[in-house]
Amino acid sequence: MARLIVGIAGLLVLAAVCHSSSPPPDFNGRPRGVSKSKQSFYDSSKPFTCLDGSRAIPYDHVNDDFCDCPDGSDEPGTPACSSLGGKFHCANKGHKPVYIPSSRVNDGICDCCDGSDEYDGRVQCSDACKELGAQAREEAKRLAEVQQKGYEMRQDYSKQGTDKQEERRVSLAELEATLKEHQAESDRLKALKEEAETPETEAKDAHKSAWEAKKVEEGRVKAEAAFRAMDTDSDGSLTVVEIQARAEFDKDNSGDISEDEAKEWLGGETARDMEHFVVHLWKTISDVYVDPEAAIAEQAAPSEATPAEGEVPPAEEPPKAEEKSEGESALPPPVGDDTSAGDDDDVMPPHHEHEEIPTAEYADDQDNVDDDDDDDYSDEDFDEYERNVRHTPVGSREEEGMPEYDEATQGLIKVADEARNAFNGADKQREDVQRQIDDIRKQLEVDLGANNEFQPMQGNCYDFTDREYTYSVCPFNRVSQKPKNGGSETSLGSWGKWDGPGGNKYTVMKFENGQNCWNGPNRSGTVKMRCGENNELISASEPNRCEYHFELITPAVCEPPPPPKAGGADVHEEL
User: Fold this and answer.
1) How many Cβ atoms sit within 10 Å of the Cβ of residue 505?
2) Edge-to-edge strand order for the sheet containing 469-474?
3) 268, 261 in Cβ contact below 8 A?
4) CA 15 to chain centre
5) DSSP classification of residue 563
6) Contact status, residue 417 vs residue 211, Cβ threshold 8 Å
7) What is the mean pLDDT of residues 506-514?
8) CA distances (Å), 221 to each of 215, 228, 396, 465, in order?
9) Does residue 316 or residue 394 have the better pLDDT?
10) What is the distance between the alpha carbons of residues 545 and 548, in angstroms, rounded to a whole number?
């Protein structure tokens, strides 16, 4: 028991010693570490009540470096209650007052600009508050001027934007009225065009029908003439024997026409009458048929004059499309002849050795032709040869195309052309007006801010260049990047929406659906804006893969500066 009494007495003595240690000196007429707004809670004439109301302690226990209150409010000027989140108030007279964690009191580092946190004498802290305060006030003044100028520019931006939007609405109304006029004129001219095209079409169709009927009749005449020429016994029937007598029907160039080959030309039969020949066989046979009278006439025609010395013979000149007469080939025949390309006898000689083949075997037969003949002509030249020579009936290659329209039809065409030109011109004007209307409607649909303050930025782009890229932000359009040393531009996104926090959405622009990253998402861009006197892109970064962040200063986001507050510097003590 005696030992217990002695122990308790020792603890009481130790506590008395602790509480009897000298408290830190007051600062600015109040306990050190206490703000002016809380000075009334620390009255030395009565016990101190913990700020949480949990207990009352003798006033001399305040700032005795021993934590008595559960909230640590009895030790505002010492680090004793730092584990409870104690705060030390730096008065910082002449500058901004601040709170610091009480653990920084007497830690050998000057945290308060007035040096009030280091009072144990281990370090000497000079009072730099006046100098720092002057600098802070100068910076605040500068920022206030920027904000004021920016806000004035924002108001001007709003006026410009509102005027521009009104101008667009007026233009839209005028264009819509103009569109009605153009639409009416276009409809009127369209009706005239259709009215003029009706007799034109009828006349052209009649002309074409007459020409086609004439061609059919001429074709029938040629077919009947060919039938009679091949029907050597004039019995009204073309037979296998009569086919075998014609060298041009030797399909395989064997020098002999078998009965099966002859029957194939006759559609599998041994004989055909004239009507069946004209209707069903002539189209195929005309490809190879050689008209003896035409061949004789062509052979009898005088040959071209011998070229003078030094001149290039016409046959050796490259083919010229503009010099061909209708029906003539652009090439010499694809055989080993050395005669003129214009001589039909030489093109289709009635000899088995170079007979043209009207079937798929034609292509195989060309393998036997001297390759040297192909070197001077292109594929297009051979296509021309195919069209003009091979697929034109022999003896009929001078067949003319459709004749010109008569004067009456040409007059109708001229009237219709004039009507079409008039309609096309008027309709183009209508389309131009419609395009302008669509553009203005799109511009009016864009959210340009609460008071159209962002309209002056519409249609402009702002660039920023770092070590590798030049970035471009075009509000309400797109964002992109381009290598600084050249290369293609990459889309980082197209205009998406306003994306600012809370009720301040007009501070962040969001651009979406840019070019796809390899094995990643589509690129996107976020543009954060802050107040400035000019429109300027000041930074660009990629904090996450394919996500780009930009900072843009602009007067469009400048708020009105706050009015000056009365009461001096101590008004902000608790900030």
Assistant:
1) 15
2) 462-465, 469-474, 478-483, 490-498, 508-512, 524-531, 547-554, 536-544
3) no
4) 80
5) P
6) no
7) 96
8) 10, 11, 12, 83
9) 316
10) 8
Q: Rounded to an integer, what distance in angstroms lies between the CA atom of residue 319 and that of residue 342?
A: 12
**Average pLDDT across the chain, whole number:** 81
Give the pair of three-digit tokens for residue 548.
């780009």
Q: How far out from the chain centre does Cα 316 lie?
A: 54
- The rounded distance, in Å, linking the Cα atoms of 565 and 443 is 43
- Taking the CA atoms of residue 154, residue 159, residue 165 and residue 166 in that order, the dihedral angle to the nearest 10 degrees is 170
Contacts of 26 (CB under 8 A, 6+ apart): 32
Indicate if the pLDDT at residue 81 is higher than 60.
Answer: yes
3-state helix/strand/coil string of 218-259: HHHHHHHHHHHHHCCCCCCEEEHHHHHCCHHHCCCCCCCCCH
Long-range contacts of 348-351, Cβ-Cβ distance < 8 Å, separation of 24 or more: 348/248, 348/290, 348/394, 350/247, 350/248, 350/290, 350/295, 351/247
What average pLDDT does the segment 107-127 reach? 91
**pTM confidence score:** 0.55
Which residue, among 299, 301, 300, 285, has the nearest Cα to 229 in the 3D structure? Answer: 285
Q: How many CB atoms lie within 10 A of CB 512?
A: 16
Asked if residue 482 has pLDDT above 90, the reply is yes
Residue range 287-306: average pLDDT? 72
Look at residue 110 in the predicted model and tell me its pLDDT: 93
